[in-house]
From TrEMBL:
Gene3D superfamilies the record matches: Winged helix-like DNA-binding domain superfamily/Winged helix DNA-binding domain
Protein name: Transcriptional regulator
Record's keyword annotation contains Metal-binding: no
The HTH hxlR-type domain, residue ranges: 7-106
Stretches assigned to coiled coil: none
Annotated Pfam families: HxlR
Alphabetical keyword list: DNA-binding, Transcription, Transcription regulation
Organism phylogeny: Bacteria, Pseudomonadati, Pseudomonadota, Gammaproteobacteria, Oceanospirillales
Single GO molecular function: DNA binding
SUPFAM superfamilies assigned to the protein according to its UniProt record, in alphabetical order: Winged helix' DNA-binding domain
Origin: domain of life: Bacteria
Amino acid sequence: MPRRSDCPISNVLDHVGDKWSLLILRDLMFFAKHSYSELQNSDERIASNILSARLTQLEKDGLIQKRTDPNDKRKRVYALTKAGKDMLPILLEMIAWSGVHDPNTNAPKTLLQRIRHDRTALIDELRQQSSGT
């Protein structure tokens, strides 16, 4: 995809500037979803054609990788790459913003407190959790 500009925010948005891409990263990072069907069954109910397109684009952009499922060689699973895991602080900031500005957010209070007071340890823990498939 050609760059629109050299602006760093524009660059990030070129990779994850739609809600579906961010929600896929969220599910891989926070909810240990790895298969196509697990991702499709998220609360937001992404359409299969959109999910397929976003997975392809995220893989092309180097944020996720598709692998053979170790438990069933006929299936594929998705995992975050290092670049995908590096999106963690951005997603945490989005959660923190929602915690302040959305009284109906379902972000757990303990998570919001950890983002504010124990961010580095939280990031380390979440990186470790998202390492396995």
